[in-house]
Amino acid sequence: MSRLALTHADAPMTAARVGIGGPVGSGKTALVEQLIPALQARGIDIAVITNDLVTAEDAERVRRSGLIDPERVSAVEAGACPHTVIREDPTLNIEAADELERRFPGVELILLESGGDNLASTFSRDLTDFWMFVIDVAGGDDIPRKRGPGVIRADLLVINKVDLAPHVGVDLARMQREATEVRGGRPVLLTNCRRGEGVDAIVDLLEREVLFRT
Amino acid sequence: MLRLHGIMGRADDKVYARQLHALEHRGGIELLFVPPADAGRKRFRLTTDRGTDCAVSLDRDEELIDGALLHLDAERAIIARFGEQQVLRLKARDDASALKLGWHAGNLHWRVRFEGDCLVVLLDAPIETYRARILPLLDAGEVVERVHV
C-alpha cells in the first residue's frame, strides 16, 4: 500500500487538464460521454471543454446529454485546423479552462476534447497535464504502424470500437501489439464507448497519473 | 507516494546551500529525472533515482526548471533534473534555402529556436525521423547540419 506524504502539497491545486484528441469519427465525444459518469461515480468534480471548427456542435451534444450541468461545458471554436488551438496557440483553451476554474472553484478535472484531426495532432504541454489519442478499429488496423505523432506521443492511446473488429477484418490483438511496440510500451487501452467497456481502466489511469489518488 | 506541490527554489540558491551540503554527505539528495519533452508539464508522476514515487504538481504560472528544488526536509531533498535536450542544428546555404527550410519546419510543426544563422530543432523523436523529412535539402547541400561548438 502506498504511503501518502504531504509536504508543501497543502496548497490548493488547480484542476488537472486532460486532453482528448484523435481523427474525425474515432469516438472522442462518445468517450467524453462515458468518462463523465465514470468520473462522477468516483466523486470527481469535473468540467468539459469541447473544440469544434466553426460550431459548438459537440458542446451542445454534451450539454443536452443530461450527464452534466450544462454550465460546466464550454465550447471553443477553432476557426482553423483543430491542432492550432491545442498546440500552436492554445490560448483560447487555456482561457476557457481558467474561466471554468473561476466559476467552479472545486473542479478537480477538466476534459478538453479536440476537434477531429489527423494522426499528426498533439497537445501542448502548456495546455494539458495528460492527453490521450483516440483511434478506432474501423479506421484501419494499420494506423499504429503509420507512427503518427498523435499515436506515438500521447500519454495514452485508446483504441475504440473494438466490437467492430471482426466486422471490418481487423486482428485486434495484432493492432494492440503493434500499438504497444511503436509506443515503446507506454499505455494502450481498448474501449467500446457505445457500451462503456474499458472506460474504467482509463479512469484508473487518470486517478493515478494526474489526480494522484492512488 | 510522496505528494509535492510547487517549486521551493533552486538547488543552487545560497539559502539552501548548507542544508543540501549536509544532506549530500548523508546520501539524502534524490534526483528526479524529467524527460525534456515533459518539462512543460504541470502535473506528473515520476520516480526518483532512489526509488521514491513522486506525484508532482505546479501552479499554472510556474515553470519547472533544471535544478528545481521540489522537496526539502531533515532527511532528504528532491531535485528535478532534465535529461539533455537533443537538438538538430541546421544552417541553410542561402536565402532561398532558408525559406524552404523554414517552410518545412513550420509545416512539420517542429519545435525550434533560433541561434544566429542556425535553426535549432528540439527533438521529440529519433533524429533520423527529422532528417528524413528534409532529406532532399540535405542531399542537395541546401541545408547542412552544424555541430554545436
Annotation keywords:
A: 214 residues, alpha/beta, Rossmann fold, 7-stranded parallel sheet, 6 helices, 8 strands, B: alpha+beta, 4-stranded mixed sheet, 4-stranded antiparallel sheet, 4 helices
Provide structural commentary.
By secondary structure, chain A is an alpha/beta fold. Chain A has one domain: P-loop containing nucleotide triphosphate hydrolases (Rossmann fold). Chain A is 29% helix and 19% strand. Chain A is built from 6 helices and 8 strands; from the N terminus they run ββαβαβαββαβαβα. Chain A has helices at residues 28-41, 57-64, 91-103, 149-153, 172-182, 199-209, and strands spanning 5-6, 16-21, 46-52, 73-77, 109-113, 130-136, 156-160, 188-190. In chain A, strand 6, helix 4 (149-153) and strand 7 (156-160) form a beta-alpha-beta unit. In chain A, helix 1 (28-41) crosses helix 6 (199-209). With 149 residues, chain B is of the alpha+beta class. Chain B has a 4-stranded mixed β-sheet. The longest helix of chain B has 13 residues, at 95-107. Chain B starts with a strand and ends with a strand. Classes of the chains: A alpha/beta (214), B alpha+beta (149). At the A-B interface, strand 1 and helix 4 of A face strand 1, strand 4 and strand 5 of B.
What's the structural blueprint in terms of helices and strands?
The complex is a heterodimer of chains A (214) and B (149).
Chain A: E1 5-6, E2 16-21, H1 28-41, E3 46-52, H2 57-64, E4 73-77, H3 91-103, E5 109-113, E6 130-136, H4 149-153, E7 156-160, H5 172-182, E8 188-190, H6 199-209
Helix pairs in contact in A: 1-6
Chain B: E1 2-5, E2 9-10, H1 14-25, E3 29-34, E4 43-47, E5 53-57, E6 68-72, E7 77-82, E8 87-92, H2 95-107, E9 111-115, E10 118-122, H3 127-133, H4 135-139, E11 143-145
